Amino acid sequence: MQIEFIASFAAVTPDTAASRALYVEALGLPLTHADGDDYLHSGDIEGSKHFGVWPLAQAAQACFGTPEWPADTPIPQASIEFECADANAVQDAADELRGRGYALLHDAREEPWGQTVARLLSPEQLIVGLSYAPMLH
């Protein structure tokens, strides 16, 4: 497995308003969001390719296809994505981790914005993404 760089880090929040108060109002981070979307994000913070504040319901939708996080799965505190060399390398990396005994939340798939990603939950309860985002290359 060849990891190119850390593509993204996002806090996973059950309370978007409280997180907005900290990250945008108190810390003054230049986080924006699309109309009608509570996902706060920026690619303009020095030292980071992408920082976000990901609503828990959206994380659940991305991982499980439902806005409710499963009761039998620990709730994540954050998400980190490691960039692979290309889209095909994402599934290869996921297969390698599965071969080492890690349970994936889902295999590689292409998201509507063009990123290919596979995800698992780490021992620290982080959503770990193996990804390829063409816009970062």
Descriptive keywords:
34% strand; 2,3-Dihydroxybiphenyl 1,2-Dioxygenase, domain 1; alpha/beta; 137 residues; 7-stranded mixed β-sheet
Q: Whole-number average pLDDT?
A: 95
Measured between the Cα atoms of the first and last residue, the distance is 18 Å
Derived from helix and strand composition plus strand pairing, the structural class reads: alpha/beta
Gross geometry: globular
For the record, the count of structural domains works out to 1
Which parts are unreliable, with pLDDT below 50 for 5 consecutive residues or more? none
CATH class: Alpha Beta
Largest sheet: 7 strands, mixed
Q: State the share of residues found in helices, binned by percent.
A: 10-25%
Number of strands: 7
Give structural notes:
This protein is of the alpha/beta class and 137 residues long. The chain has a single domain, classed as 2,3-Dihydroxybiphenyl 1,2-Dioxygenase, domain 1, CATH 3.10.180.10. Helix content is 24%, strand content 34%. It has a seven-stranded mixed beta sheet. It starts with a strand and ends in a 5-residue tail after the last strand.
